[in-house]
Specification:
The chain is α/β, with parallel strands linked by helices. It has twelve helices and ten strands. The longest helix has 18 residues.
Length: 338
């Protein structure tokens, strides 16, 4: 039963007596979205499929990726998942079920989410999927309701995989070719860290003729000469906002979730370490990469921060400021591309 069928059948009656969701069944989207706070909305979705291949592990991976991608398609990030299993226990060995669940578990872990349980039922043939919960900022939800003629269509995976599955089943295509060339792509969910928002911004799909959105960078450093000198290079390719203190930087970050945050670790009174920890504790910014500019790596003895503080902080990159702009640009390339 598709989401579209459910929407046509029940319409808005399913929400009678409750606070309306931000995204419900009326628009036949991939998931429902419910506001929790001004900063966090919960994404809820469930999806399961019949086996497209005979290999249990591949089946688990493909189905889990299919379910998790519903969260990414709404602009969010998956947090938890529950197994949804229908299995003919009287006809198939329990090892088949273990293979399916193993594949699903590995895909959930790959997405950075946690598998927290599930439910099984006997059925005539195996079916598997996930019920997935995720989060998204209420102002950055992506739906399919706003599309219009002339919009660009972005294909994240090849078309025609169903035809190839059937070709294998009918003996017209070797399974090894399918496993080598097709299954890795089918089992890959749309990546959360480099999600739709990261590529096209928060406004949705680019319209016909629109240019690719520049990546937004917030650069926070209390040295105006250094920050302006570096910004001159960054602004050629990116949309750069600068701030001379942690407080000013936080205001810029809250205007729009950036694609990258560059921080001077030695700012006072609030250091880049302190600001980064504060932001990482907020679900909205947990997936945003950080570039930490520091002199601590070579001058630990002159600061109040230890080498252990650097190594245990969950930042993606560290660059010694003494190395100059070239190393900063190279680190940005590694984190968000050119």
């Amino acid at each position: 039963m598709t989401g579209s069928f459910v929407g046509r059948t029940f319409g808005s009656r399913s929400t009678f007596g409750f606070r309306p969701p931000l995204v419900g069944i009326e628009t036949s989207d991939d998931a429902a979205v419910h506001r929790l706070t001004d900063e966090i909305a919960m994404i809820k979705t469930i999806d399961f499929i019949n086996p497209p291949v005979d290999d249990p592990y591949w089946f688990g991976q493909i189905s889990a990726a299919n379910s998790i991608s519903d969260v990414y398609s709404m602009g969010g990030r998956p947090l938890t998942a529950l197994n949804v299993v229908m299995f003919p226990s009287k006809n198939l060995d329990i090892g088949v079920l273990k293979g399916i669940l193993h594949g699903g578990h590995d895909k959930v872990v790959e997405a950075g989410a946690r598998l927290v349980g599930g439910h099984t039922a006997d059925d005539e043939e195996p079916k598997y999927g996930l019920c997935v919960n995720g989060v998204v900022h209420p102002d950055r939800i992506v739906t399919n309701a706003g599309s219009r003629p002339g919009d660009a269509l972005i294909l994240t995976k090849p078309l025609g995989t169903g035809v190839l599955f059937n070709a294998v089943r009918s003996g017209k295509m070797p399974y090894r070719d399918l496993e080598r060339d097709v299954l890795p792509s089918v089992a890959r969910p749309l990546s959360g860290k480099r999600s739709f928002r990261k590529s096209y911004g928060a406004q949705g799909w680019p319209h016909k003729g629109a240019e690719m959105a520049k990546k937004k960078i917030v650069f926070i450093d209390d040295d105006p000469e250094y920050i302006e000198g570096t910004k001159e290079y960054l602004a050629k390719k990116h949309d750069v906002a600068t701030a001379l203190s942690a407080e000013e930087g936080l205001e810029e970050i809250k205007k729009q979730v950036p694609d990258l945050i560059i921080l001077d670790t030695m700012m006072e009174p609030k250091s880049g370490f302190d600001l980064a920890r504060e932001l990482k504790a907020d679900l909205t910014y947990r997936d945003v990469p950080f570039l930490m500019l520091t002199a601590v790596a070579t001058q630990v003895q002159t600061t109040k921060y230890s080498q252990a503080d650097i190594l245990t902080f969950p930042g993606e990159e560290y660059v010694d400021m003494a190395q100059g702009v070239k190393d900063v640009l190279a680190a940005i390339e590694r984190l968000i591309g050119s």
